Amino acid sequence: MTSSASKTRIAADNLCAVGAAARAEDPIGSGYYITRALAIEVPTPWGASFYQSDPEGTLRQRTAAMIAASYERLRENPPAGGAFADGYAGVFAIAPDREYSNPTMTKALLITRPPGPFRAFEVAEYEFPLESERILDLVAAFLADELDYGGVEAYRGSHGGHRELFVCTHGQVDICCGKFGFPLYAEARRLKGARVWRASHFGGHRYAPTAWEMPSGYMWGFLDEDSTRGVMSRTGDTSALGVKMRGTSGLPGPVQVLDRAGFEAFGWAWLDFERSGTAEQVSPDERGWRVRLTYRAPGGESGCFEGDVEVARELPALNCGTESQESTYSVPEYRLASVRHERA
Predict the structure, then answer these.
(1) What strands lie across the sheet with 105-112, from one edge to the other?
(2) More confident of the two residues 319 and 174
(3) Between the CA of residue 141 and those of 3, 70, 111, 132, 154, what are the distances in Å?
(4) Contacts of 183 (CB under 8 A, 6+ apart)
(5) pTM to 2 decimals?
């Protein structure tokens, strides 16, 4: 019989992020490719019922029901190329903050990818009275992909051009995000440079602690004290930070791999470049792509990166923090097999 102490030890030893770091997994290409995202303040604790949906329940449960219904419609009637061929639309929670939040209001951050070449996401800020059902109008417009949010314009305030850093601390979903996310959150808050939020799960817990930065759209993984300082100050060595990069949500996964080459070549100035990318699948089993990424700097300099991206390894996804060592699925690790850079 396994004792409680032994079970605790096994759970602590069997953490997906610890295993991923030990295998020196490269997180690039795992950044969620999105068209838009909606972050809504939800008071903690986020318990086991956090994702429970009920069309007649609380505002949170009704929101969850609207999201579930929207995704079900997409699955039943996907657009050409697949449900999320042009990017994912995601809703996640942020914890109300003692510095950034109004205790009588619910804040929502609407994040959208503008049309054309990608440079940065646009972020709009809304505030609704606590328990106001009008926030459901924003959720409905978001899920319908309406370009006009005029129905809730009265609740829109000034965003102020803040940088936002969302740190996953959702330990109820994955132990790693709770165990490693909270220290990252505390360190980032100490460093300043952005509004730093505790966020619910947005994927990639095997790379915990993981963070999502806006408006650049970059997702980061395996962040430690030095790399967090580099991200927050935008002064870190981009070559060293490259191994912490999951990718920008403004570009598709295989293109994110090539985008990192641009980041390492041009440094932090790369975040101000306009970029457009394409990925042509050249392997029938979805293990290889020919990728092209064009860019234009604010001063007019332009060029392109071209390369071949391939799946380097298929890595097991363990049942994090449990006795079971079984993998229920695998995740690909990408590598840039070749790269060419031409300046216009």
Answers:
(1) 156-157, 122-129, 105-112, 34-41, 88-94, 195-199, 164-168, 211-214, 218-220, 245-248
(2) 174
(3) 52, 11, 13, 16, 15
(4) 209
(5) 0.92
pLDDT digits (tens, 9 = 90+) for 196-209: 999 999 989 899 99
According to the model, what pLDDT value does residue 82 have?
Answer: 66
CA distance 241 to 211: 13
Alpha helices in 157-291 (DSSP H): 175-191, 225-233, 238-241, 253-266
Q: Is 317:16 a contact under the CB 8 Å cutoff?
A: yes
β-strands 211-214, 105-112: how paired?
unpaired
| pLDDT tens-digit series, residues 224-280 | 999 999 999 999 899 899 999 999 999 999 999 999 999 999 999 999 999 999 999
In single-letter form, the type of residue at position 198 comes to R
Distance from chain centroid for Cα 66: 21
Contact 65, 139 (CB under 8 A): no
For residue 246, count CB atoms less than 10 angstroms from its CB and return exposed for 0-12, middle for 13-18, buried for 19 or more: buried
DSSP state of 207: G
- C-alpha angle 31/16/236, rounded to 5°? 50
